[in-house]
Design goal:
This protein is of the alpha/beta class. Helices cover 44% and strands 15% of the residues. Helix 9 (198-210) links the parallel strand 9 (189-193) and strand 10 (215-221).
């Protein structure tokens, strides 16, 4: 399916058909900038020496909630309907989307309930509760948690379901790449971790308008390859997730994001969980940065590629490392 540059087709809440434009991203950028500061884009010379070219790290982990996903929450809060504010919100997540919706509810003065599977790290559960939301534990996978969250949103006087691919969320995420390409319009490539793919959709939308010569390369764990398989086949595929990187632990492709990922990504690579751990250690030792698994995946993808010529960027999307992830930083 071809997607016209500048328009994301199919990026919806699964049921509605919505077209998002770069003009929408610009508006979202104004909203998000009113709540959170732009994140640093930093060159780390020690990291450059390892990779063999200039690598710019977009430090999204410094945002409130420790993840780029708070951008989606900020934009969502500004776009909630009166009915949604009155009913409250419900969603599902392994952690960072959960915190973004909890953050949105706090900004909007309403309540949020978040269904989290058993694989969600305790540190992320605690963070959701600290933001004032209610955590409901259900299922072993994100798919099972999502099904239960939709049940909680069924019937009268129930909270409104917020899908991870809600257009308001996608536009908020896109503001990270609006910043990136304004900060460095001469990039030859940017590496983007992919779970549901909302960040990558935003990357492609901003790239098409601001840096059409830049390659956008998606990165996913080989232990959770559903999005990658869906991208290759062009149909939604489901595969059990066994990754240690909770932010990448999706077990199915997403109908809302798949069409644009197929049209917009220049490549999509798989890396092992061990490679992600190695990248996290490099970020800690060579860039002074604590990254969770999903936040280190982009660098892992770059390290697995042939050394590019020119400036490249990697998105450190989150720093909410679990105790296990922090412990593995010291592994040889």
């Amino acid at each position: 399916m071809y997607v016209q540059p500048g328009i994301v087709r199919g990026v919806t809440s699964m049921d509605d058909q919505t077209a998002l434009t770069f003009a929408d991203v610009l508006t979202a950028g104004e909203i998000v900038a009113g709540e959170v500061a732009a994140t640093p884009l930093v060159d780390h010379p020690l990291l450059d020496r390892v990779v063999g070219t200039e690598v710019l790290v977009k430090h999204e982990h410094v945002l409130p909630t420790g993840s780029f996903k708070v951008r989606g929450g900020v934009h969502l809060a500004a776009r909630l309907t009166d009915a949604e504010r009155a009913s409250g919100l419900v969603t599902c997540s392994t952690g960072n989307h959960a915190q973004s919706v909890a953050y949105a509810a706090r900004l909007a003065g309403c309540h949020a309930t978040v269904v989290m599977p058993s694989c969600a790290p305790q540190v992320k559960r605690d963070a959701v509760v600290a933001l004032g939301a209610t955590v409901v534990s259900h299922g072993e996978s994100l798919g099972e948690a999502a099904a239960h969250a939709r049940v909680l949103a069924t019937g009268p006087a129930t909270p409104s379901y917020v899908d991870t691919t809600d257009p308001r969320i996608v536009l908020g995420h896109a503001t990270a790449y609006l910043e990136l390409f304004r900060q460095a319009p001469d990039l030859v490539a940017v590496y983007v971790p992919i779970g549901s793919g909302t960040g990558a959709v935003g990357a492609c939308l901003a790239r098409d308008a601001l840096a059409p010569g830049c390659r956008v390369i998606g990165v996913q764990s080989s232990a959770a390859p559903a999005a990658w398989r869906s991208w290759r086949s062009g149909r939604i595929e489901s595969v059990a997730s066994a990754t240690r990187a909770s932010g990448l632990a999706t077990s199915s492709g997403y109908p809302a994001t798949l069409p644009y990922l197929r049209a917009g990504l220049d490549d999509f690579v798989l890396v092992s969980d061990d490679a992600i751990d190695r990248a996290a250690r490099l970020l800690a030792s060579h860039a002074g940065t604590l990254a969770e698994g999903a936040g280190a995946a982009a660098l892992a993808g770059l390290l697995a590629a042939d050394s590019p010529t020119g400036r490249v960027a990697v998105m450190c999307t989150g720093g909410n490392a679990s105790a296990d992830e922090i412990a593995r930083l010291a592994a040889a």
